[in-house]
Hints:
The protein has 252 residues and is mainly alpha-helical. The chain is built from eight helices and seven strands. α1 runs antiparallel to α5, α6 packs antiparallel against α7 and α7 runs antiparallel to α8. The chain starts with a strand and ends in a 6-residue tail after the last helix.
Amino acid sequence: MFTSNIDPVFFNLGPLEIRYYGIIYALGFIIAFFMLKHLSKIKKIDFSEEVLDNYIIYLVVGVVLGARIFHILFYGLNYYLTNPLEIIAVWHGGLSFHGGLVGALIAGWIFHKKHKIPFLKLADITVIPASLALALGRIGNFINAELYGKITDLSWCINFPNIAGCRHPTQIYESLAYFGLFLILWNLRNKNPPKGHYLAAFLILYSISRFLLEFTKEIDIIALGLTMGQLLSIPMFLLGIYIFTKYSEREN
C-alpha cells in the first residue's frame, strides 16, 4: 500500500498555475519533434525543418482540440454546460485520447493535402512518438490523481488524496502498457513493412490494452457493461484491422 501526496502544481506565477500535467504534455510534443526528425530520415520523407515545424503545430492544434472536444462531449457534457469556464482549463486535465487521435488524423490529412506527403507514411512515423507521449501522459494523470482504479487490497494499491479507499494505480498500468507499445514500434523502425502497418499496429495494440485495463478503472458503465473508453476502442481496433488487411502488400 502506498500513498500519493504529489502536488499537481509545479509552481505558481501569480494566479497562473504551472502543472506537471501541462509540462508533460509540452514535453511530449518536444520529444515528438526530434523523434519525427530522426524517423523522417529513416523512412525517406522529405521534411525540411520548416515543414516539420509546421507539422508539429498542426499536431498540437489537432490533438488538443480533438482531445478536449471528445472529453467534453463524451465524458462530462453536463459538468461543462454548468461550468463553461472549465472548458478552456485544459491544465486541470480532461483530454480524451480517442479525441486526440481523431484530431491528429484530421490534422495529418490536412497537412498531407497541403504538402503532398503520403498520409500513411506520415501516420506511420507519427504513431511512434505518440505512443511514448501517451505513456508520459498517464504519468500526468497519476500526478493529477485522476483516472484512478477501483478499490483493491493488492499490495501495490495507492491511496490518492481525498479519494476513499486504496485504489488500482490504473494510470501506471496504462503507462507501462504504452511504454511497451512504444518499444515495440521503436524496435521496428528500421523495418520496411507495407504502408500503414505501423499505424495499424498502434491502433490494434492500443485499443486492446485500453479495453482490458478499463476493467480496473473506477468509471461509469455506459452500455453493454462497457465504459466509454471501451466503446470508443472498438471502432479503433476495427480500423486497425482494416488498415492492416487493406495494405497487406509492400509497394516496390
